[in-house]
Amino acid sequence: MDFHHLKYFVEVADQKSFSKAARNLHISQSAISRTIKALEDELGVVLFMRNAKSVELTDGGTIFLTHAKRVVFMFEHLKTDFENEFRLEQGSIRIGIPPITDAPIFAQLLGEFKKVYPQIDLELYEQGSKKVEISVQEGLIDIGIICTKPNPKEFESFYLTSDPLSVIVPKTSPLAKEPEIRLDMLSEESFVLHKDDFNLHDEIIKACKHTGFQPHIVFETSQRDLMLQTVSADLAIALLPSRLCPEVGENTEVGSKVVVRPLVPEIIHTLYVIWKKGHYLSHASRLWLDFVNSKLPLPGLQLEAHK
């Protein structure tokens, strides 16, 4: 029995699945099955009840899980303490970022971090907020940026920034003459939204329903440029975070065909940084979190008091 045996066992118990555990640990399912079988043979106890859809802990497995988690926790924190003691500023960080974050600001942030810590590799994954949450929970990425308040039972987090949504409409629309647009004025409009793996998709639909109408969605996409082109073609209206709207300039082909207006009442788009609660976080990842915290408030972004 060694540390990896215990870590594999804990992962299978947490995921209730050999295949999910194998994927999270980046090993084959057959390898993890052999490891668990060897562990059961060594202990002389069946740890899991196996069926076609999932695995469940036996009574003996439940008792063993308590001790195994303690050992895994102690070992991982021993590694953390060692890194802290010797300041091992190297490694890699997997970060999930939604496409609707402000690309120039975050590119600058990443560049500044690399100047300070050139030995740390940054692996970026562009995903909708819902996929970011799942990826963090399953251990596929270390840190995520999401667009909704995280579940405190599952994630550690800190508030990053807030920004109201604006409405983008075709210049040919009567709404283009309005200085600001109420949400109820959009009840007869067609919408282009981000796909449903974006939390912003759900927030907009929820706000429309609360106002008294179901939005007519003609198109969903993960690409902001395609969303703007859909508006410029007079096919729909769009709602985007205000900080992204200055990019819709008059000197662009799309910008010459659309206008941006404030939305009232405001729908606030909020960003949080998250990482898995109770999960080992590498020294490199903690350096990144400390670095981002030290840069708050981010330039060019509206920062509210954290609630």
Automatic annotation (TrEMBL):
Residues 1-58 form the HTH lysR-type domain. Coiled coil: none annotated. Pfam families: HTH_1, LysR_substrate. The keyword DNA-binding applies. SUPFAM superfamilies: Periplasmic binding protein-like II, Winged helix' DNA-binding domain. GO terms for molecular function: DNA binding; DNA-binding transcription factor activity. This is LysR family transcriptional regulator. It comes from Veillonella atypica. The lineage of its organism: Bacteria, Bacillati, Bacillota, Negativicutes, Veillonellales.
